[in-house]
């Protein structure tokens, strides 16, 4: 029997679409969960190691902070600084992701999707175990690196995977990644606030990698031609016309189906073609990178310094709830694709830069009256960042030719990681300057 003649309504109709949307939502949630938790735990990770061994030296190749002196204690600055900026955790969380996103799109098609997912699950589980049982900064940072590898490979793989499904799964993926922010930050903050130790909290979260396995292998309904366990010699293996037609529910996609057959044919992209695709992606990647540079400069360079002493929350609690409210904004905007689509990505970038500049001056001159105002600003910051992310990949999917789309979705994912990495580097001198005051 021809697999394309499957008449099961659950595999070809609305039931499959709902399952696929839910599947991508869960994949987005699980993929970004460890990454978010590590950033939410950044302040606690560094405080824990500082209290355990105040004289321990930190390997500069791991933390990128060898120029911080041990004398910069939290009591020597009006900003109540950690000797090591939380940007150290950010860099460990993003640099492996950045390296993967820079090079993997050119070779990742040789690795089957099923193998990629299993690898991501193992890396995420290992990261929770390493950080929870660590007794030194370098062990914690290594755990953060494992989380980064899992998130980076997972993001470019799942974004590429969307080309085998109807375009609405992008909304599910975007909403799920936003949900990871809220679930990760809120769950971590809530469990710590309830009295659990960071170690127990991280061990509880081992359920998340298992949920990724379930959502990928048992919830998704891929088309029969999907290369689950075999490598592909192409960056875009076109789904058969009938299968595509069964998956489609968008008039724009139906119009695409009328394009010449050769535009939907599977074939290996040459290196010059890949470079040409990357050149065309710059109009999307650059504004996305700028948005993420500004917001992570705020998150890991300024948030730790926005400390209000006469507030009912401690410094660590304020930091955790800043992260939580930021993620709430991300969730709302990443879930907005079904309601509003924003094509002017540069406008979102400029608004985020204004946020960063305003908060930089607020840290320097300390003119903000209360943490409540910062709560509102970081919520707005999350709205801008989430909107930039989900709209970027929606319009890449919409405007890229079929045969280039799988490669384009993977390659464009480098934009946010590059912005985050640059933000982490920029945060170090800022942290050092304010902590020296």
Automatic annotation (TrEMBL):
<dbReference type="GO" id="GO:0005765">
    <property type="term" value="C:lysosomal membrane"/>
</dbReference>
<feature type="transmembrane region" description="Helical">
    <location>
        <begin position="84"/>
        <end position="104"/>
    </location>
</feature>
<dbReference type="GO" id="GO:0051246">
    <property type="term" value="P:regulation of protein metabolic process"/>
</dbReference>
<dbReference type="GO" id="GO:0051649">
    <property type="term" value="P:establishment of localization in cell"/>
</dbReference>
<dbReference type="GO" id="GO:0005769">
    <property type="term" value="C:early endosome"/>
</dbReference>
<comment type="similarity">
    <text>Belongs to the battenin family.</text>
</comment>
<feature type="transmembrane region" description="Helical">
    <location>
        <begin position="116"/>
        <end position="138"/>
    </location>
</feature>
<feature type="transmembrane region" description="Helical">
    <location>
        <begin position="144"/>
        <end position="165"/>
    </location>
</feature>
<dbReference type="InterPro" id="IPR018460">
    <property type="entry name" value="Battenin_disease_Cln3_subgr"/>
</dbReference>
<feature type="transmembrane region" description="Helical">
    <location>
        <begin position="21"/>
        <end position="42"/>
    </location>
</feature>
<keyword id="KW-0636">Prenylation</keyword>
<keyword id="KW-0812">Transmembrane</keyword>
<keyword id="KW-0325">Glycoprotein</keyword>
<dbReference type="InterPro" id="IPR036259">
    <property type="entry name" value="MFS_trans_sf"/>
</dbReference>
<dbReference type="GO" id="GO:0051453">
    <property type="term" value="P:regulation of intracellular pH"/>
</dbReference>
<dbReference type="GO" id="GO:0045121">
    <property type="term" value="C:membrane raft"/>
</dbReference>
<dbReference type="GO" id="GO:0006865">
    <property type="term" value="P:amino acid transport"/>
</dbReference>
<keyword id="KW-0597">Phosphoprotein</keyword>
<dbReference type="GO" id="GO:0043005">
    <property type="term" value="C:neuron projection"/>
</dbReference>
<dbReference type="GO" id="GO:0007040">
    <property type="term" value="P:lysosome organization"/>
</dbReference>
<feature type="transmembrane region" description="Helical">
    <location>
        <begin position="371"/>
        <end position="395"/>
    </location>
</feature>
<dbReference type="InterPro" id="IPR003492">
    <property type="entry name" value="Battenin_disease_Cln3"/>
</dbReference>
<feature type="transmembrane region" description="Helical">
    <location>
        <begin position="407"/>
        <end position="428"/>
    </location>
</feature>
<feature type="region of interest" description="Disordered">
    <location>
        <begin position="241"/>
        <end position="264"/>
    </location>
</feature>
<dbReference type="GO" id="GO:0061024">
    <property type="term" value="P:membrane organization"/>
</dbReference>
<keyword id="KW-0967">Endosome</keyword>
<keyword id="KW-0449">Lipoprotein</keyword>
<keyword id="KW-0813">Transport</keyword>
<feature type="transmembrane region" description="Helical">
    <location>
        <begin position="345"/>
        <end position="365"/>
    </location>
</feature>
<dbReference type="Pfam" id="PF02487">
    <property type="entry name" value="CLN3"/>
</dbReference>
<keyword id="KW-1133">Transmembrane helix</keyword>
<dbReference type="GO" id="GO:0005802">
    <property type="term" value="C:trans-Golgi network"/>
</dbReference>
<feature type="transmembrane region" description="Helical">
    <location>
        <begin position="202"/>
        <end position="221"/>
    </location>
</feature>
<protein>
    <recommendedName>
        <fullName>Battenin</fullName>
    </recommendedName>
</protein>
<keyword id="KW-0458">Lysosome</keyword>
<dbReference type="GO" id="GO:0043066">
    <property type="term" value="P:negative regulation of apoptotic process"/>
</dbReference>
<feature type="transmembrane region" description="Helical">
    <location>
        <begin position="177"/>
        <end position="196"/>
    </location>
</feature>
<keyword id="KW-0488">Methylation</keyword>
<keyword id="KW-0472">Membrane</keyword>
<dbReference type="GO" id="GO:0006897">
    <property type="term" value="P:endocytosis"/>
</dbReference>
<dbReference type="GO" id="GO:0005770">
    <property type="term" value="C:late endosome"/>
</dbReference>
